[in-house]
UniProtKB/TrEMBL annotation:
The gene is pyrB. This is Aspartate carbamoyltransferase. It comes from the Bacteria. It is an enzyme of class 2 (transferase). It comes from Desulfoferula mesophila. It catalyses: carbamoyl phosphate + L-aspartate = N-carbamoyl-L-aspartate + phosphate + H(+).
């Protein structure tokens, strides 16, 4: 049984294997019939306790392109609403013999708890403010495709670092692959001792942008901002939003990324989100390939 619970502890060789596998599987999405029989007979449960557009859809599409059978369960339509616990829910799902559960949960560590109790493969599709490993991997693939490499790049991550599972997985993955990460955001949204994550902290938006090969803008997660001092959205946009004026001072070949969903006019000006430097939709396309690779490597025919 194999899991993908986070990028912490995953080696550069293992990350490269996922990215190379994604590259070899991505051409399936360009075929007239976008389907291969690789996972025929396998059953995958998508178990989402939090809203999702990109992750859920791309895991489902990835599974279907590999011919797996898929079932989707959301918190609001399951018996969780009647008080059934997470472990009991998972044990009942397990009684139906799935091969893999893809899980998103608002609590950090929920997929790890499931993995302790449930003898089937688990993929963490985002747990609270902890990790979002498939997003981290698709971001690495997007950067590698755009820049031709991952080592020696300067990547700036801007926004709410404290609550961002995307930032955490990106930082871990980028550090493992040899990129240098700089973070910038409101002081109240930088974790204490943030440098221990292996990042440099910029003192201004200008400093974060200049010299960056890649800029990753984070979503303002209003649903997770109940416990911190936070500027108004208007002030946030003025002080921490990325606009055309910043790009004039950036490297000419800088690329802009964002995990989505984008708050247009808050963390990203619309003309930046839609401009030629934006890789936002490439990230989404690469997400399908990376998730196909994860499914293949975790439960595919050559899995030991
Ligand atoms: N990037 C991401 O996790 O998007 P969703 O919340 O729509 O899945």
């Amino acid at each position: 049984r194999r899991n993908m619970l986070g990028l912490y502890g995953v080696s550069a060789e293992e990350i490269t294997t996922v990215l190379d596998t994604a590259e070899s599987l991505r051409e399936i999405s360009a075929r007239p019939i976008k389907k291969v029989p690789t996972l025929r007979g396998k059953t995958i449960v998508h178990f989402f306790y939090e809203a999702s557009t990109r992750t859920r859809t791309s895991f489902e599409i990835a599974a279907k392109r590999l011919s797996a059978d898929t079932v989707s369960l959301s918190a609001s339509t399951s018996s969780l609403t009647k008080g059934e616990t997470l472990i009991d829910t998972a044990k009942n799902l397990l009684a139906m013999s799935p091969d893999l559960i893809v899980m998103r949960h608002s609590q950090s560590g929920a997929p790890h708890l499931l993995a302790k109790h449930i003898p089937c493969s688990i993929i963490n599709a985002g747990d609270g403010a902890h990790e979002h490993p498939s997003q981290g991997l698709l971001d690495l693939l997007t950067i590698r495709r755009a820049k031709g490499r991952l080592d020696g790049l300067k990547v700036s991550i801007i926004g709410d670092i404290t609550h961002s599972r995307v930032a955490r997985s990106d930082i871990i993955g980028l550090n493992t692959m040899g990129s240098q990460v700089t973070v910038y955001g409101p002081r109240t949204l930088l974790p204490p001792a943030v440098e221990t994550l292996g990042v440099r902290v910029a003192g201004s938006m200008e400093e974060a942008v200049q010299d960056a090969d890649v800029i990753i803008m984070l979503r303002v997660q209003q649903e997770r901002l109940t416990d911190v001092l936070f500027p108004s959205l208007r002030e946030y946009a003025q002080r921490f939003g990325l606009g055309l004026r910043h790009l004039k001072a950036a490297k000419p070949d800088v690329v802009i990324m964002h995990p989505g969903p984008v708050n247009r006019g808050v963390e990203l000006a619309p003309e930046v989100a839609d401009g030629p430097w934006s890789l936002i939709l490439d990230q989404v396309a690469n997400g399908v390939a990376v998730r196909m690779a994860l499914l293949y490597l975790l439960i595919g025919p050559e899995t030991p």
